[in-house]
Specification:
Layout (H helix, E strand, L loop, with lengths): L2 H16 L5 H15 L5 E8 L2 E9 L5 E3 L3 H9 L3 E3 L17 E9 L2 E10 L7 H17 L5
Antiparallel strand pairs: 1-2, 1-6, 2-3, 4-5, 5-6
Helix pairs in contact: 1-2, 1-4, 2-4
Bound molecules: methionine sulfoxide (SME).
Length: about 160
């Protein structure tokens, strides 16, 4: 399967799984499990949800992670502060990177938008350098939009 096909299947299954469910935690849990199942060469995939100036750990697959990240710091916090997707080919070169798992070498962080407000992020880590590209970024942005469309607000 090439990358585009992997993402087509992942998004199809995510759409089906979320079709009858609007609870954001239930949907985030399945989306994390699907990213974990479909995406090769990753060591963490999951959600952080925004509470004020914090990003609080949500459903994920992988090793236990930092429960709380500060908006403006690290890759996740910077993606929120700048309001954009970040593709980081080498996390060790990213000032302020928060190393939850020493095995992570590259990272993709996609903000989740409700209109113009960011309510959280999808975060994916890889043990390989340069694992993520624009195809991954666009596909996970699309998955993020699907999550937002199909889920109620996180309280
Ligand atoms: N590396 C992230 C922290 C979250 S973990 O990767 C799961 C960061 O710098 O924000």
């Amino acid at each position: 399967m090439d990358k585009a096909e992997i993402y087509r299947k992942l998004e199809d299954e995510a759409r089906n799984r979320a079709a009858g469910e609007r609870n954001p935690i239930a949907n985030a849990a399945n989306f994390a499990a699907l990213m974990w199942e479909y995406l090769p060469d990753i060591n963490w995939a999951g959600f952080y949800f925004r509470k004020g100036r914090w990003l609080v750990l949500g459903p994920f697959m992988g090793k236990p992670a930092c429960t709380r990240l500060q908006v403006g710091l690290g890759v996740c916090g910077t993606a929120v502060a700048e309001g954009k997707t970040l593709v980081v080919p080498d996390v060790h070169q990213f000032a302020g990177h928060v190393a939850c798992d020493a095995a992570s070498n590259s990272e993709l962080v996609v903000p989740l938008f409700k209109y113009s407000t960011i309510i959280g992020v999808i975060d994916i880590d890889s043990p390989s350098f340069g694992r993520f590209d624009e195809v991954d970024a666009k596909a996970i942005e699309s998955l993020g939009r699907l999550f937002m469309l199909r889920s109620d607000d996180v309280s």
